[in-house]
Amino acid sequence: MTKLPRGLSGQEVRRALEKAGFYLKRQRGSHIVLRRDVPFAQVVVPDHGAVDTGALSHILDAADLTVEEFLRLLRGLVSPPGGLLAVRTMH
């Protein structure tokens, strides 16, 4: 199992999730709410200098992404929705 990356900013996490079809729903203070319509998911990303690994783990669970998929999004190796990400059903 691949380890979660450390030291990612909230903006880096946001950009990676946007590649997976998420868009900005709203922001209040340092909390960014991102939503994906199909399949539906909504996550809250802290807009901090470094997102804790526990928070990142919860974000990925809510977004239904594996660590490997997230790392590919970070590296820009996955195209937008309809690309390489497979829609998974239940855990």
Written overview of the protein:
The chain has 91 residues and is α+β, with helices and mostly antiparallel strands. It has a domain at 25-75. 33% of the residues lie in helices and 20% in strands.
Secondary-structure blueprint:
Elements: H1 10-19, E1 23-28, E2 31-36, E3 41-46, H2 53-63, H3 67-75
Antiparallel strand pairs: 1-2, 2-3
Helix pairs in contact: 1-3
List key phrases describing it.
disordered C terminus, alpha+beta, 91 residues, globular, 3-stranded antiparallel beta sheet, 3 strands
In short:
With 91 residues, the protein is α+β, with helices and mostly antiparallel strands. It has helices at residues 10-19, 53-63, 67-75; strands spanning 23-28, 31-36, 41-46.
The number of strands is 3
Rg, Å, rounded? 12 Å
Weakly predicted, low-confidence segments: 83-91
**3D shape:** globular
Which range best describes the helical content: under 10%, 10-25%, 25-40%, 40-55%, 55-70% or over 70%? 25-40%
Class of secondary structure makeup: alpha+beta
Main beta-sheet strand count, sense and barrel state: 3 strands, antiparallel
Helical run tally: 3
Quote the distance from N terminus to C terminus: 16 Å
H and E string? HEEEHH
